[in-house]
């Protein structure tokens, strides 16, 4: 900068420009105190992308070759021993010129195999299990027959010493072979190891050669007696055996276990908690019990566990079993009231249900039903009938509901005949009305027995069938109700069998079948079973099991089997055992009775032994002092006891006396 200001502005500008250039020059010439150079690069830290790419490509090729090798090795291991495992696709691409012919041969072989398989499936087995069973029973029968008719030989031991007599009259020879050693009297006379009766015989025989008297023997009280042989019965074979097996199965199914309310409550409690199958437990407990036992089980369950049995079981059952449990545990009047209410509201058969319930209950039951109906639905039964039903049917149902009819079983035939005449005298159009006339009076107050007798008398007088006349004169629901009433009064089991059959059809009502089985199980189920079999040719159990579309049909079948079995009258147990024993030993009616086996006659009292008897000769050499051989028939058991045969022993004692008189010298 000059010390003095410039003379003009141009000069000042030049000076400033020159000063700036000098400043820039000095600035460039200055050295920095910081090292701002790039960091030094080392060779081993540099990334060579090309090299990495080449290595990755090489590794990829190696992995590809390894996968191919692994596939080949896997195919070799999976192969079943081909000749050239290294060329596994040889069979897929066969180079044979006979490929078409080979394919035809394979097709032919395949067709032949299919024909053989078809013949094998159509072929039935050659063996017959029933025939085998019959042959086995007949084989056992022949063996028993042989054993019962085999001749029983008795040995004559006159002239034999005591040891030989005991030997022949002891156990049979097969048992003696198994026995380790035969009990004998020792040489020094020791009889401690023998039984009491054997010791008595042995001590007596040691003192002398004579056999002891039978009265002196201390024989045990447990006398072994031979069983009386009986002729075996001819076994039941073929269809008879099958019928016997089926009968035993039915009897076993009809038998119920002993009832214990506490045990039943425990089983139902376990089933309600998931410990077991609830449907099976219900079928085995509630379905097999009577109405009073079911109510007792229900009370015991609530008392013991403080729970509601129906609610506990329903939690683990489907809808069908829930309805069944509700019906089994409900009281009779509640169940009838529910069925009547459902019929009035259009659920299930209308006239048949109402007539069946109202005509088969007595006055006390009808009163209980009306009370239960009013309690459950807050409405009187008669009022509900008046509001739901009209016409002659309403008067009929109200007459049946009143429950004021006579219940005496005795029928006055004269009064019944008089009522039948009045019924005949009534005009045809008004004869069967339920609101006025003689029939209306009978429906209100007369007993059912009296009404049935009146209808029978009417048929005798007119020669007409009551049902046919009702079908001709009446119509609508009233005709169905009157026909159901006459059928129910004439033959109630047959009427109920018809109702069960109708409701087992696809268009029927399953709850009606359940209600009839439950309500009539303890009353006339056996008669219903017979009527159903007579009408439709099959058992009620089979029909329910095949046609009823409910999961609870197993329990209903159990009820029919158990409660429908005919009850046997009580009898004396000892008398039953005696009859069974007599029947067991009685000869078969189809087989002639065999004669009794022949036995050797008893020896005569004055009989003597012949001199040429070999048994007598052998005994004379050994025992010269033997006067006579006393030979009672004795049987020796495993415990060594000797038993005496009464009549035969007396005969032998008599013969012994005669032999002692003669003596051995006289022989």
TrEMBL record:
GO molecular function: calcium ion binding; calcium-dependent phospholipid binding; phosphatidylserine binding
Keyword terms: Annexin, Repeat
Claim: Thylakoid is one of the keywords in the record: no
InterPro entries, alphabetized: Annexin (IPR001464), Annexin_repeat (IPR018502), Annexin_sf (IPR037104), Hmw/CFAP97 (IPR029488)
Region (Disordered): 564-667
Biased composition (Polar residues): 641-667
GO CC field: cytoplasm; nucleus; plasma membrane; vesicle membrane
Pfam families named among the record's database cross-references: Annexin, Hmw_CFAP97
Biased composition (Basic residues): 593-602
Family listed: Belongs to the CFAP97 family. Belongs to the annexin family.
Name of the protein described by the UniProt record: Annexin A11
Organism, scientific name: Holothuria leucospilota (Black long sea cucumber)
């Amino acid at each position: 900068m000059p010390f003095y200001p410039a003379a003009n502005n141009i000069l000042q500008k030049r000076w400033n420009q020159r000063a700036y250039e000098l400043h820039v020059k000095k600035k460039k010439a200055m050295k920095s105190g910081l090292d701002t150079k790039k960091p030094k690069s080392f060779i081993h830290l540099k990334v060579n992308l090309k090299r990495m790419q080449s290595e990755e490509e090489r590794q990829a090729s190696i992995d590809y070759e390894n996968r191919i090798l692994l596939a080949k090795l896997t195919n070799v291991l999976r192969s079943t021993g081909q000749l050239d495992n290294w060329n596994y696709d040889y069979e897929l691409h066969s180079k044979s010129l006979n490929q078409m012919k080979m394919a035809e041969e394979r097709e032919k072989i395949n067709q032949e195999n299919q024909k053989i398989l078809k013949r094998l499936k159509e072929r039935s087995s050659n063996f017959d299990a029933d025939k085998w069973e019959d042959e086995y029973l007949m084989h056992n029968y022949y063996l028993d027959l042989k054993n019962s008719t085999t001749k029983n030989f008795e040995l004559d031991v006159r002239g034999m010493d005591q040891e030989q007599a005991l030997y022949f009259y002891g156990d049979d020879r097969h048992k003696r072979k198994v026995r380790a050693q035969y009990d004998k009297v020792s040489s020094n006379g020791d009889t401690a190891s023998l039984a009491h009766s054997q010791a008595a015989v042995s001590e007596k025989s040691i003192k002398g050669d004579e056999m002891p008297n039978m009265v002196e023997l201390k024989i045990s009280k447990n006398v072994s007696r031979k069983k009386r042989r009986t002729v075996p019965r001819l076994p039941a074979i073929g269809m008879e055996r099958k019928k016997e097996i089926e009968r035993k199965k039915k009897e076993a199914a009809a038998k119920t276990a002993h009832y214990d309310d506490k045990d039943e409550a425990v089983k139902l409690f376990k089933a309600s908690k998931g410990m077991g199958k609830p449907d099976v437990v219900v079928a085995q407990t509630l379905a097999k019990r009577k109405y009073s036992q079911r109510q007792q089980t229900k009370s015991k369950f609530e008392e013991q566990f403080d729970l509601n049995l129906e609610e506990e079981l329903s939690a683990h059952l489907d809808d069908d079993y829930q309805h069944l449990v509700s019906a089994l545990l409900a009281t009779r009047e509640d169940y009838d009231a529910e069925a009547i209410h459902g019929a009035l509201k259009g659920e299930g058969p209308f006239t048949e249900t109402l007539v069946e319930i109202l005509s088969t209950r007595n006055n006390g039951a009808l009163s209980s039903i009306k009370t239960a109906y009013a309690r459950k639905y807050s409405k009187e039964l008669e009022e509900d009938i008046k509001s739901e039903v009209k016409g002659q049917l309403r008067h009929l149902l109200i007459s049946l509901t009143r429950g004021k009819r006579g219940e005496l079983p005795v029928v006055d035939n004269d009064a019944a005949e008089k009522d039948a005449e009045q019924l005949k005298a009534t005009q045809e159009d008004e004869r069967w009305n339920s609101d006025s006339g003689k029939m209306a009076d009978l429906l209100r107050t007369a007993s059912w027995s009296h009404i049935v007798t009146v209808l029978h008398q009417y048929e005798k007088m007119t020669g007409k069938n009551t049902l046919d006349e009702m079908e001709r004169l009446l119509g609508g629901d009233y005709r169905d109700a009157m026909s159901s009433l006459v059928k129910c009064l004439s033959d109630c089991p047959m009427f109920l069998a018809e109702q069960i059959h109708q409701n087992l059809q696809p268009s029927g009502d399953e709850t009606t079948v359940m209600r009839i089985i439950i309500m009539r199980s303890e009353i006339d189920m056996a008669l219903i079973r017979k009527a159903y079999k007579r009408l439709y040719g099959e058992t009620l159990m089979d029909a329910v099991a095949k046609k009823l579309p409910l999961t609870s049909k197993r329990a209903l079948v159990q009820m029919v089997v158990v409660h429908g079995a005919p009850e046997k009258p009580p009898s004396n147990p000892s008398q039953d055992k005696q009859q069974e024993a007599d029947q067991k030993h009685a000869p078969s009616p189809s087989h002639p009775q065999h004669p009794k086996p022949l036995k050797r006659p008893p020896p005569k009292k004055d009989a003597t032994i012949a001199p040429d008897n070999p048994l007598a000769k052998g005994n004379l050499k050994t025992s010269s002092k033997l006067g006579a051989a006393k030979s009672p028939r004795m049987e020796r058991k495993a415990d060594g006891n000797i038993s005496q045969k009464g009549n035969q022993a007396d005969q032998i004692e008599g013969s012994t006396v005669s032999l002692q008189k003669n003596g051995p010298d006289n022989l």
